[in-house]
Amino acid sequence: MNARIVLLGSGELGKEFAISAKRLGCRVIAVDRYDDAPAMQVSDQREVIDMLDGTLLARCIRRHKPDFIVPEIEAIRTSELLKLEKAGYSVVPSAFAAHMTMNRDAIRELAAKELGLRTARYAYATSAQELADAILAKAGVGLPCVVKPTMSSSGKGQSVVRTKADIAKAWKYAIAGMRGDRPVVIVEEFISFDYEITQLTVKERASQGGGVKFVEPIGHRQERGDYQESWMPCPMKPAAKRAAREMSAKVVERLAGKNGAGIFGVEFFVQGNEVIFSELSPRPHDTGMVTLRSQDLSEFDLHLRAILGLPIPEIRYNGPTASAVILATHEGTNAPEYAGVAAALATPSVEVRLFGKPTARKHRRMGVVLAHGKSADDARKIATNAARKIRVE
Fold first, then answer.
1. Is 347 a catalytic residue?
2. Which position among 43, 119, 281, 287 bears the catalytic label?
3. Is 365 a catalytic residue?
4. Catalytic-labelled residue, pool 253, 279, 351, 378
5. pLDDT tens, 5-41?
6. Could you give the number of structural domains in the chain?
7. Annotated catalytic, 333?
8. The CATH number of the domain where 37 resides is what?
9. What range defines the domain where residue 134 resides?
10. Catalytic: 331?
11. Is 294 an active-site residue?
12. Quick check: is 267 catalytic?
């Protein structure tokens, strides 16, 4: 194919995407704010820049002249991507999608008000006092609730507020965990859900028919706002599954537009037959790491095929599969080493993926364990037990 791709953000998701791209002959330039990021280790070239600096970002793109600009993170000066797209560059899945999803407030407004999707009640705040008012006012969100920065990644800055005393702490925690330069938080009603899912949704190019395709729903569990494990299959009532797909198609088609293409990770809370829109990423999703083992075409392969306009045949699944994260337990570890990998790999069906991050910090995701089982619950137990055997040192 020989397509030239500039990858904006070079974490573990970018690394797997770069591997998929290299397998089909693409040239990948990996960009991030720090050197030796995971995707840089498997790419043709690297750039270390602050992607929130529009001038540096535009200079980088024009220097490499890519066929495709592929954002992997939210912390990008997306207003510059809109300009670059107007200048003729192809932004994946579209500059509009990247711009809207950079901030939780923009995508929530689009989902709830423009598209009429069912969401949790929500409000915004730009100070600790505004946050208190948004929660405690007569028409406020109420307690308990969830507070998040409008821009962050991997659950950073997210907390549950259960009492008035928690509000000031939640504000400080959210601002400390935010990315970008907008000190705004979103506060949401606390949803007592049965389970959470990610509905991976693929928007094809017009040359492929311009349709929308779906991966089977992925169940997942979070702590501190960050994914800990995911599994397939995730049993859903037919009505709930149908609703999730209808809502996903609606928001994906709006964000991708006529010419956009790529994979979207759409998150939902599920209560019985009711499906509640939570968040959306216009790129491969962390919970979708399970697709590296659950099927013949991973989410990274699907993203690449959609971008390049290649055929996406019916996905073939490999039975019950789960993923479990490997987390660092210490602060500030450089050049981390890993103990217990052999013990984890001694378990049948287990596969270990270490991301190669150059530094570790407490709760940072450093790798993932993938496993098959007789059932989804069995696969979860196998993956979780294997992940616990690995220590980041």
1. no
2. 287
3. yes
4. 279
5. 999 999 999 999 999 999 999 999 999 999 999 999 9
6. 3
7. no
8. 3.40.50.20
9. 121-189
10. no
11. no
12. yes
